[in-house]
Amino acid sequence: MKIFVPVEEAIRHLRDGLFAKLRSFDWFQTVSLLALQDDVILVTKQFDDHILTFSPRETIGKDLFRKGHYQRDLANRVLDLVGVPKGKVLLELGANIGTHTVYLMRSGKFDQAVSVEPDPRNLKLLKHNLSLNELSSAVTVFECAAGDDEGSIDLYFGDKNFGASSVIKPNGSSRSVRVPLRRVDGILAEAKVSAEDVGLVWMDIEGAEPEALKSMAELVRLRVPILMEYGPWRYGPVKTAEMAEYLSSHYRRCIVFSGKSETEMDIRDVLDQRDILLLP
Questions:
Q1: Angle formed at CA 171 by CA 167 and CA 173, multiple of 5 degrees
Q2: Could you tell me how far CA 94 lies from the centroid of its own chain?
Q3: What percent of the chain has pLDDT over 70?
Q4: Which spans in the chain are helix H?
Q5: Which of 21, 91, 221, 244 satisfies CB 3.0 to 4.6 Å to 268 for a cystine?
Q6: Alpha-carbon distance values, 88 to 105, 130, 146 (Å)
Q7: How high is the mean pLDDT of the chain?
Q8: Exposed/middle/buried for 176, CB within 10 Å: 0-12, 13-18, 19+?
Q9: Are the beta carbons of 90 and 199 closer than 8 angstroms?
Q10: Which positions fall inside the Methyltransferase FkbM domain (predicted)?
Q11: Residue 130 and residue 56: Cα distance in Å, rounded?
Q12: What gap in Å lies between CA 70 and CA 58, rounded to an integer?
């Protein structure tokens, strides 16, 4: 009956307000995640300025479900430090499911992106998320690993963290799949993107960074800003020293991120795994 409509609306508003308040607490988001039934494989969630589909039980998906983002604070800070990029193309090596693709493209600083991702599990969601956010026409996806050769290579799966898949063979047994291997300069050539057009390289490829850098020499020569996950323990002392000398000879600044803090230091003094930003 219509007489009950105002009461029903009041109850709905009260309920919505209560849940909005509860969602602001980390413990509530954690409990909500634990309460998901086992047959819930994917979740599609509307965020402030974008929408994403993700696996809520995988590392990145857990952060998206509980925190509402995955390292968007890092993406925003990197954009602040880079300022106005000289090029309007984003080059993303290790795009995963497209979280940072969306974040960086939403900034308005890039007109186009070239996104490279080898993991077939991530590729499906990457393409889906680009479509959800109407970015498919602006982002060219390459289904391959980035390295210093052309051919194919084994990709070893990170089962609990889809962002941890790597061409570096882990200790012990691990599932793997053969994927195409491409040089970065070859990828850009196929995408018809010149090195001068690239304004930022975002690279997180689980230990293959030294090899990828060898195939993007023109980008390094032009000192295009690079955000990368830097892991000396993965590379070994010899490769780490060579890589650090190479990068320090081209980039004047190295910003090291640790949690919510950041420090400017010589890349040759970075001994632990960190996200670093290389600037001219």
A1: 85
A2: 6
A3: 83
A4: 5-22, 26-34, 59-67, 72-82, 99-106, 120-132, 184-190, 209-214, 217-221, 232-235, 237-248
A5: 244
A6: 10, 18, 21
A7: 88
A8: middle
A9: yes
A10: 93-250
A11: 18
A12: 12
Matching residue, tokens 């955000």: 227
Give CA separation, 249 vs 9, 30, 253, in Å: 65, 45, 11
Q: What is the pLDDT of residues 194-206, one digit of tens each?
A: 999 999 999 999 8
For the cut 60, the answer to whether the pLDDT of residue 23 exceeds it is no
CATH 3.40.50.150 residue spans of the chain:
72-279
Tokens representing 83?
A: 């300022």
Rg, the chain, Cα only:
21
Q: What's this model's pTM, rounded to 2 decimal places?
A: 0.85
Residue carrying structure tokens 């230990």: 207
Amino acid at 93: L
Task: Indicate whether 7 pLDDT > 90.
Answer: no
For strands 51-54 and 43-46, give the pairing.
antiparallel
> What is the DSSP secondary structure assignment for residue 135, as one 8-state letter?
-
9 pLDDT higher than 70: no
Decide which of 232 and 157 is more confident: 232
pLDDT band at 27 (very low <50, low <70, confident <90, very high): very low
